[in-house]
Design a protein that fits this description.
By secondary structure, the protein is of the alpha/beta class. The chain is 41% helix and 16% strand. It has 4 domains: 79 residues, no CATH class; 167 residues, Rossmann fold (3-Layer(aba) Sandwich), CATH 3.40.50.300; 137 residues, no CATH class; 91 residues, Alpha-Beta Plaits (2-Layer Sandwich), CATH 3.30.70. Helix 5 runs parallel beside helix 6 and helix 10 packs parallel to helix 12. It is globular.
Length: 518
């Protein structure tokens, strides 16, 4: 297991351009703002979202291109200063100006200004990057504003990029006219589940030097990492480092859900035996169900083919009473006492005399990495699935040859369940916070929705132009508009409150499906 030591070195905080998980749109935006000489750009994000790594990567990228493009980059880290003289001296030293320590403030300002003008006249593009920008004092920002006044033909002579936590914005607003001079403002958010997998895969790939290594983290193991870190890059790297050390110590080849949950001490020790028993029972139920499906696949079940659907008068499938399949979700939430809980993602029971055409689909899910179809179904519905629903799932997905593994590029058609559309006809007010035209988009939104926010659900329907729409609604409904408004203002925040709409009906809805995601 020598390869574990090789991989271990990649999960450290030491910056290496090869390990950088690139948010390409942000990099391109920043570089474009620099090249058009727009002046001031800022990058904000909470601790651990990758601001310092992005600063180092941008500096490295511009430095590599220096020979062709004549770019000079300068970095100031931890810029806290107790006086304007100290800050101006820090800039002079970053510019590598000589004999500056005994100079007065005005003399230093002249030296800095002359340096900027001289290098610009020589054809250089000057970029000053400041990390931990939330430490900048009021007088520091005022001097940066003064440097931004240096321009020729409408172009700024010095490009400034500040990286900092969210408090940076308030500091910039406090300086008259400075906030309005920002030409590019990029925000770094925690990673989603898919991005977490990609970050881990990138580091392992670099460590392996493109040789295939054993699968170190199972799918549910990565889900446990994502849940424990909430997508914070620094926490992801630190936790992976600890997991790899634990694997090496205990001579384990893979890290799964239980390994990582135990390592992070998420489970309450007093209840751990009970919880492990419950989760194992859940896996046992899922195993029984999978065995029944395998029996169906080897001959006990004949799926509907496109030819059969065309030639038959109207093939139907009867929906029987649902069976419950409980599968640990992709991003398990935890209660206050740290017990494992499961988001309730279920399908309501349909009367036994309901008839469904098996070749109709409610939406399509596209897979980008290897993943069991049952894991996908577990993430989508999680708590209750109908046996006949699974039969129809198999019937309409004849393009899938191995239902135990979906490979990159495979797509999964989800059969529909008709509904009375009572979600918008119950004379209650509902709150819609987002809408999508693809099922993939709606599910990705739900997967990244904060666990501590009010519960949401997907409400799919067909509009009057025969287009599928997937609304994201709050689970709770309201009797009056005032109640709904108060809920938005008090319980929601940020982008969710900004996009919220109070709805009593959908005028262009002609047909809706039943699939709830809490």
């Amino acid at each position: 297991m020598e390869y574990l030591k090789q991989v271990l070195d990649t999960f450290t905080d030491n910056f290496d351009p090869e390990f950088f998980y690139k948010p390409e749109p942000i990099i391109d935006k920043l570089e474009n703002a620099i090249r058009i000489k727009s002046g001031l750009s800022i990058v904000t994000g909470e601790t651990g979202t990758g601001k310092s790594a992005l600063c180092n990567y941008l500096n490295n990228r511009l430095y590599i291109r220096n020979e062709d493009d004549k770019i000079l980059t300068f970095i100031i880290k931890e810029p806290y200063c107790i006086s304007i003289a100290e800050f101006i001296l820090r800039i002079a030293e970053a510019f590598e100006l000589e004999q500056v320590k005994d100079k007065k403030i005005e003399q230093l300002k002249i030296l800095i200004r002359n340096f900027i003008v001289k290098k610009t006249n020589e054809g250089f593009l000057l970029v000053l990057m400041i990390d931990d920008g939330q430490q900048l004092q009021h007088f520091c920002l005022e001097y940066l504003s003064e440097l931004l006044n240096l321009e020729a033909s409408g172009e700024k002579l010095l490009q400034i990029v500040i990286f900092g936590q969210s408090g940076l914005e308030q500091r910039l607003i406090a300086i008259h006219g400075l906030y309005q001079r920002i030409r590019e403002h990029c925000r770094l958010n925690p990673l989603g589940f898919k991005e977490t997998r990609e970050l881990i895969s990138l580091r392992i790939k670099v460590a392996s030097n493109n040789f295939k290594l054993p699968r170190l983290f199972t799918y549910m193991g990565i889900a446990a990492i994502f849940q424990a870190t909430s997508g914070n890059q620094k926490k992801i790297i630190d936790l992976c480092h600890k997991v790899l050390i634990s694997m090496s110590t205990n001579k384990k080849r893979h890290a799964g859900w239980f390994h990582i949950r135990n390592l992070t001490n998420i489970n309450n020790r007093s209840n751990s035996a009970k919880k492990v028993k419950n989760v194992k029972q859940n896996y046992a139920l899922a195993t029984v169900f999978l065995l029944s499906v395998i029996i169906l696949l080897i001959g006990k079940f004949t799926p509907f083919s496109s030819v059969e659907a065309k030639n038959s008068t109207q093939p139907t499938v009867t929906i029987n009473k649902p069976i419950e399949i409980i599968i640990p979700e992709k991003t398990p939430s935890t209660t206050e006492d740290n017990q494992i809980t499961y988001k309730k993602i279920s399908m309501t029971e349909i009367p036994s005399d309901s008839h469904i055409e098996p070749n109709e689909i409610m939406g399509i899910l596209t897979e980008e990495t290897d993943m069991s179809v049952w894991s996908k179904i577990g993430i989508l519905f999680n708590n209750k699935v109908n046996r006949e629903f699974v039969n129809r799932l198999i019937a309409i997905n004849s393009q899938i040859h191995d239902f135990n593994h979906l490979k990159s590029g495979d797509f999964l058609k989800i059969p529909f369940v008709p509904s009375t559309c009572d979600a918008y006809t119950d004379k209650k007010l509902h709150i819609k916070i987002q809408s999508f035209d693809t099922l993939d988009g709606a599910i990705e939104y739900v997967a990244e929705y904060p666990d501590n926010f009010p519960s949401i659900k997907i409400f799919p329907y067909i509009n009057k132009i025969n287009k599928k729409v997937y609304d994201i609604m709050l689970e709770e409904n309201f009797n009056t508009k005032d109640d709904a408004d108060n809920f938005i203002n008090n319980e929601l925040a940020g982008q969710y409150a900004n996009s919220a709409q109070i709805i009593d009906k959908i005028d262009d809805m002609t047909y809706c499906y039943k699939i709830w995601v809490d």
